[in-house]
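This part of the workshop introduces the protein records we will be handling. An example says more than a description, so a record of this kind follows.
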Amino acid sequence: MDWWRRWRADLGQPEAPTNRDQLGFLVVGALAITAIAQLTDAGSPLDLLLVAPAVVAFVLRGLLPRMPAEVFAAAVVGSVTVTVGRDGDLEAAQFLIVVMVLYVSWHLRTLTRAGVILVVSAAAPWLIARVLIPEAGIAWTPWSSACGFTFLLGRELRNQQDLIDQLEQARGALAEQAVAEERRRIARELHDLAGHTLAAMVLHVTGARHVLRRDLDEAERALLDAETVGRSSLDQIRATVAALRTHERGTDRAQGGSADIAELVDEYRRAGLVVEATVAQPVADLPGAVGTALHRIAREALANVARHAPANRVEFAVAVDEREVRLVVVDRGRPGAPPDPNEGHFGLVGMRERARALGGELEAGPTSDGWRVDARLPAAALIGPP
């Protein structure tokens, strides 16, 4: 029954519509063949009248994109067979059948329908030469062979057109995918930059507000730190925008890498977070994409603590071995709440995307007294572009 399903599926394939830009080829071709037939083997006015439906069929095929191939073939084969089979004149009009087979086999995706039209078209010269006017001595084999040749040529054109269509679809899908990936990348860059900066500034301003009435010097120091963070953020935004207008790699340098991990931790300490950091010595030497990803995941994890639980104590640890680089950020104090399904949580999404892009993994979730982020990046990712 497999052959039956394949045959039904073949019959169900749609016919490619005729493009209007093919109208000129069809009309000029039909008229040229008729004129050559009249010049080489002149027929009577009645012969020209009888072959006219075949020419009209070519015109209608160009004007009606959805004209069924069987209607087109019947009009051409019937008209030419009657014309040539009447007295043998206009023998070259059989080129109309040959061209019709080429066109139909090109536009029909179904092999079954195209094959039936080929059989009928190839039989027409035999019918003319052997049944209708055998005394005229017309050779039917060249015409039938020409139908077979143009059928194969048309099927090859059909296959080529299908491949072109598939390539166009694939190119469109790849273009959409590239645009979506670029949008996700820009979203990660902006989220990381804005989230980190605002979290640090809020901590500084909050600290200044708390000590404003008790220690003006400490309040001023906190506000100066907030101003410094803001100015640094403005510089980073300018560098990020400039990099996005040139090439992607510039954004990595603008936002730092693994060598800046210690500075990142100190920045959040100055902002008021209590951070106990354990950073392995090789971390500062991590090159390429893994260093950039490590810095940004660490930044997002600390920014989340600053936004949601600034009073919690943070345990920050980075370890490196031959197989992987591991970052663990745990805050303790106030229990962590599960994510609100109505919120985007793009920070968690961005951290996971950065880890997966390098072949690593990241787990994040609430604990009994806070929140935990555990990222593992493979050592193999140390080689490659940032």
